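User: Hi! I'm working on a homework problem where we have to compare a predicted structure to a textbook description. Could you give me the structure for the chain below?
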Amino acid sequence: MASAFANLPAELTEAVLIVSAASGNPNSIAALSQTSKFFYDLIYRCPDQHLWREIFLTTFDDPRPALNHLSLISGGHSDLEFNWTQEYIDRISAARYIRHPVQTAAPVSSQSDIPTSLSVVKALLSVITTSLPFPSSPPISLTFLSDFPDSNSHLAPMINSPPFPPLLLLLTANYSALLGSVNAAWLQDLLEIGFPPELTRTLMAKLSFDVQGHAPYKPTLTSASYWGGSEVGQLFHKLICCTGFIPIAVPAPELADTSVPIASPVTSTSASLDSAFSPDENEDMPALSITRLRSPSYTPEAQSADARTLARRRVYDMRYLSPARMWGPFKPVQRDTTDSPKSNQFESLDDDENEDNDEEDEDEEDNLGLMHLGLMNGHRVPDINPPIKPYELVPDYVWLASARIIVEANLREMFRPSPLPTAFSAGDILPYMRKMYTMCIGGSPGYWDSWANRPREGEGFEGSGKSEQGEVEGWDWAGVSGIWKRCVCWLDYRDLLVHNLAPEKFLEDGIQEACRVIPLTIRITGYSESPIPPGSSTRPLPTIHVEGESIGSDRSTDDLRKVTGTVSMISDGAIRWQMVSSVAGSDEPEWSSEAVQIGGPGAAVGFLGMWTGAMHERPDPLGPFWAWKVV
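Assistant: Happy to help. Predicted structure tokens:
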């Protein structure tokens, strides 16, 4: 039988392998390759990747549409090479590792070892990145009844806009099959199990999980910059930005079972992971070790609450604010100290500066111990010199993931599902924000309309400029224009100060956060030239300049604020949103916001970010927000 199979034409053998992959049996490919040199060469040494391309496409989306669009966004070339063989092997190996994290099943390739946590995370991010883009936004027009009597107001479209992206209604109606992305369905099914436990446990504040084959990990109440130097840490948190927190499904006692022998590759993997998650010796705020006994409850609810605790510690850390981060969720940009003044507000003020404070203000602040934190004095913190360029900014996904965990938890408390089976509420729609379809390129309303009308080759946006400010031609390449909903969260200012003085208070129950969903209208006012990164000959897409209005504030749901800002490309292929909102009824700036697009460009999931004072004074408050486009 074996010799008869070997005598089949190569085309028939390849067809059998493709059918095996399509039927969910990829291991048969590796098994056949080990039977003879002939089959090994046929499978792994073919002169091109036509076989692996067909095998890949049985399980995943064709990556070329997404990669071509991302190449246009980044200003690169559309003819990108894609390693079909390695991508398929990495994804299948990652899936097997997630489903059986402590077992040593045969890999897809006979030459593959058990994947590291880093390779698992990279494979999952690749699935999101190469998901099939939406051909257009869902053609749905929604009007919600409102309590506002002035329906003829020019603000009526913003007031009556739906609470969530139209895409979510397609998902709630179970029309996901019409959306086309095989990647989204594959990843959604896989992540029902959750991530590898050795990664998820790093999101905990006090719950301790022992993972088979991995070194012990002690939960700590740490700041966001604690994991700043870890590649697997940043990429895992980037994944959390897309998926939200997913609890560990396996009960803790089973995780701690060491009766099953573990192969040496797993041990080496754990060593590299835990060393990557080692604290930075130069950390400004030392890690706060939690020595409490293991909690008897490891329910998903308990894990989510514990992850929320650590996320709060990271997001509401006032010392995170820095001009080196452009006052946003970015990794600090290094500057030679001889070229710029010391501007890090983490450092304590000197005696001369303290003496200039009014005695009354000093007494009030010192009662909170702000002098010890270096957060005294309302003077503006100086900016970095020379100014930071867009291509120098890299998103801090640890902070952004923490922001998503917090805002999503607050939204669940705000929008609860209807208790009646026949009723339907916003709380029933909210869970669909976690669907992988919301990560696909172009899922937000109107995204593709602007691309259809973009300047063609020869018309470009890289002209010499129309004004001294560098104004150029452009189009809405980021899907900016429209109506958005923005969920803003904050702590009472005194609570914020107290929790920064004593971070262990984040462990206490009963922390009260304010949460408000604010409608926001954005219009494009123009475009300006973006600087060319060093070593590149291609100019990024033009910076989009916007203006608009938002309704609501921390003081009133009726306050109308003016909004101005920019949208631009930064490092890591990310899209940065920068906005400033005014005092209600005035043009005076009050709050600034820095955010990063999550998922693909124009993804329905929107963007995550940080708000803080527009003047960047000590000690400014800060908090997270999440925004998504609805019209």
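For your comparison, note the following. The beta strands are 220-221, 288-289, 482-491, 513-528, 543-551, 560-569, 575-582, 589-597, 607-613, 622-629. The chain has 23 helices and ten strands. Good luck with the assignment!
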